[in-house]
Amino acid sequence: SPDVLNRCVEDLACLGMDCEIIDALPFALSRAVQFIDPTVSNGPVAALDWGAGHPSFVVVNEDGPILTRSLRGCGLGTAIDQIQTQLSIDEMECAQLLTTCGIQAAGKVTSRIAEQIGRNIADSLDQLIDQLQRTLAFADQRGVKPKHIWLFGCGGTIAGMDQALSAQLDIEVRNWQLAPEQLARPLASLPAHAIFGAAVGFSLLNRNA
């Protein structure tokens, strides 16, 4: 709200700092979507930042965010902690499993491990789908239902998650991904860009200023 923003500016002024710009996650996600998706000029699309805490859902058009909602109770933090504990792995090993195996068996990862990951994620996934279905219905009533959804955060690094969400929501879900020409050569082989998509959006503030 304006009151909160004004207090932030006043507090910073008391510390001897001038506040020129205040940014927020919905605007960062909006810029990250606009950076890779030229179709946003033809109608609204959405961004879903699904990480350890409360996921953020933002409907975006060419002017920026037009609807935003925090989805409570369906973060991935607890599920990731359970996976690490049950499989006796650390955070980096868990990230590797989610990227290479995800919610379906793939490659050299056994189906037993894939099923374990799926069971741990199931509750968060079910709650997320329920909240997204209601949010999409509300967006449809407002005439701003998105054509597709870009998936950010840890959720966007889980193999097969985009297809699983697409099937449940009856709307295409895509993992946020930079095009090869948008990446410096040392970063071209990164397997999952979605984890730093919001950070890219924040960095684009200066580019667009």
Protein model, in words:
With 209 residues, the chain is α/β, with parallel strands linked by helices. 47% of the residues lie in helices and 13% in strands. The protein contains 7 helices and 5 strands, in the order H-H-E-E-E-H-H-H-E-H-E-H. It has helices at 2-14, 25-36, 77-87, 91-100, 111-141, 161-169, 197-208, and strands at residues 45-49, 56-61, 64-70, 148-152, 172-175. A 5-stranded mixed sheet has the order 3-2-1-4-5. Strand 2 and strand 3 form a beta hairpin. Helix 2 crosses helix 7 and helix 3 (77-87) packs antiparallel against helix 5 (111-141). It is globular and about 55 Å long. The relative contact order is 0.16. The model is unreliable at 105-109 (pLDDT under 50).
- How many H/I helices? 7
* Poorly predicted tracts of residues: 105-109
DSSP strand tally? 5
Strand percentage lies at 5-15%
Euclidean distance between termini CA atoms: 22 Å
Whole-number average pLDDT?
Answer: 87
Largest sheet, spatial ordering of strands: 3-2-1-4-5
Radius of gyration: 18 Å
Question: What is the fold's blueprint, element by element?
Answer:
Elements (H helix, E strand, L loop, with lengths): L1 H13 L10 H12 L8 E5 L6 E6 L2 E7 L6 H11 L3 H10 L10 H31 L6 E5 L8 H9 L2 E4 L21 H12 L1
Parallel strand pairs: 1-4, 4-5
Antiparallel strand pairs: 1-2, 2-3
Helix pairs in contact: 2-7, 3-5
